[in-house]
Amino acid sequence: MKSLDKQIDQLFSDLKSTCGGVKNDYFGLIYLENEFNIPREKAINQIAFGGNDYGIDGFHFDRDTKNFYIFQFKYSNTYSQFKDSLQRLIDVGLEVVFVSPNADSNKNQIINQMRSSLINNRSIIEQVCFRFIYLGDPTEAERSQVLDKLREDLENKKYYIDEFFKNREITFIVEYRSFSGKVGSIVDQRKTHIYDFPMKDVISYKGPNNETMHIGLINLTSLNTIFCDMGVRFFERNIRYGLGEYEAVNRAISKSLKSILIDQKESPLIFAFNHNGITLYAEHIEHIDGHYRIIAPRLLNGAQTVTTFSKFMESNFDNPQLKQNKALLEELYVLCKIISNSSQEFVTAVTINNNRQNPVEPWNLHANDLIQLQLQDKLKEDVGIYYERQENAFQSIDIEEEGITEAKAIELIKLTQTFLV
Q1: Which run of H or of E encompasses 21?
Q2: Distance of CA 152 to CAs 174, 189, 389, Å?
Q3: Amino acid 400: pLDDT
Q4: CB environment 291-312: b (16+ within 10 A), e (fewer)
Q5: Which residues pair with 388 in a beta bridge?
Q6: Do the bridges between strand 291-295 and strand 284-288 make them parallel or antiparallel, or are there none, so unpaired?
Q7: pLDDT of residue 243
Q8: Cβ(89)–Cβ(154) under 8 Å?
Q9: Could you say which residues of the chain have pLDDT below 70?
């Protein structure tokens, strides 16, 4: 560490008059020179000195491996230092670099340098690799709930990269590394959840800051396909998981499904009239060949409908009446709102205001706040306890897979009451 401190001090002294920036910016310069054997005069043009960098501290194109690297550097042992800059990269960074490079005339020079390298090498780049370099242990960063959530948000922006490369298949890799050379698990991008399905009678509506809402009718089987594929990730932006099959709302939905699909006492067309509807958030939505393509959907409201329908289908899997009346499934629709092109704060407000049909306590509204994710990390890492910030979540997880050693969870409300006492 002392040797690295001296190198940074010397670089800062030698180059601050021409490069500017602060001492920590030179940490990245040392990494590029050492890791890729880049001459200093070239490496200087691949590092962000100063601010307005949109969460990008450096870049490099390796012609031999055909990898394009995008870096964040933190001269720190603490992985939490990545949180704010990673959020900037998600919120605006990728869009500025890959889609709208001229949106900000005051952006850091590195954005122009990076854009030029991307365009010049567009035809030969095969992988875009995000590397997060710091002094700590990369395995600790990988266990963080906060960084895991932000990593998924970053991966959900891959459609910007696909657009830049004209839908040519580009591998997307995110990894944490220590400056000393220790590497965490290098994992290819999780599956990008993309779904094409029909929607009936769709209209669109713009919000005050260009948020978009598509409103139409969606088939229950389409929702069930998403839930079966994504599992509990489908609920990650919701306030809570399902309320349980014995709650009044779920009993009513089950009764209606039985009446339509098993007993044939009601027309499937009546279901949409009796249902309040559901709300989804999607990273991106577009109309293609009569279908709607939805990228990275998340359920904001309607967990009871989705979980109840799924359980109904499972419990009646061998029911001959359901098999006989299978065609009726294609006529089961619910009203659906799909929100896109919106900020996290806007999505949170929509989630709160769309979850009023079942009693929602004030503390439930903060289940997805970043501080709650940080508490979840803290309790798991320090004492092996699961922090149940989302109502009913503990019963849905595999505690061994999550690294939990205690058999009981700490609930959000009880922890809050303890702090207050």
Answers
A1: none
A2: 10, 9, 19
A3: 77
A4: ebbbbbbbbbbbbbbbbbbbbb
A5: 411
A6: antiparallel
A7: 43
A8: yes
A9: 1, 167, 185-191, 237-249, 355-366
DSSP H helical segments within 262-302, as ranges? 270-274
**CA dist., res. 249 & res. 59, Å (int):** 52
What pLDDT is stored for residue 67 in this prediction? 95
Closest CA to 385 of 362, 363, 410: 410
The answer to whether 386 and 412 are in contact (CB under 8 A) is no
pLDDT at 246: 45
Nearest residue to 337 (alpha-carbon basis) of 294, 375, 370: 294
Using one digit for the tens of pLDDT, what is the confidence trace for 101-142?
A: 887 888 889 999 999 999 999 999 999 999 999 999 998 888
Query: Nearest-CA neighbor of 82 among 94, 71, 95?
Result: 71
CA distance 147 to 174: 11
Q: Cα separation of 120 and 115, whole Å? A: 9
Q: How many CB atoms lie within 10 A of CB 399?
A: 14
Decide: 304 and 235 in contact? Cβ < 8 Å.
Answer: no
User: Which of 299, 306, 388 lies closest to 350 in space, CA to CA?
Assistant: 299
162 vs 226: CA distance, rounded Å: 22
- How many residues in the chain? 421
Select from 12, 27, 36 the least CA-distant residue to 74. 27
Percentage of the residues of the chain whose pLDDT score is greater than 70: 92
- Determine the pLDDT at residue 186: 59
Residue 215, beta-bridge partner list? 203, 337
The neighbouring-strand residues paired with 164 are none
For the chain, the domains span 2-188, 194-360, 366-420
Token pair for 122: 């567009």
Among 56, 41, 127, 134, residue whose Cα is nearest residue 89: 56
Q: pTM of the prediction?
A: 0.69
Structure tokens at 273: 């009239």
Task: Give me the pLDDT at residue 338, please.
Answer: 95
Give residue 184's pLDDT.
74
In angstroms, the Cα distances linking 420 to 85, 127, 310, 383, 415 are 32, 49, 40, 21, 9
Joined together, the tokens standing for residue 210 give 């260009």
Torsion sign (Cα): 211, 215, 221, 224: positive
pLDDT score recorded for residue 188: 57
Burial class, 35, CB count within 10 angstroms (exposed 0-12 / middle 13-18 / buried 19+): middle
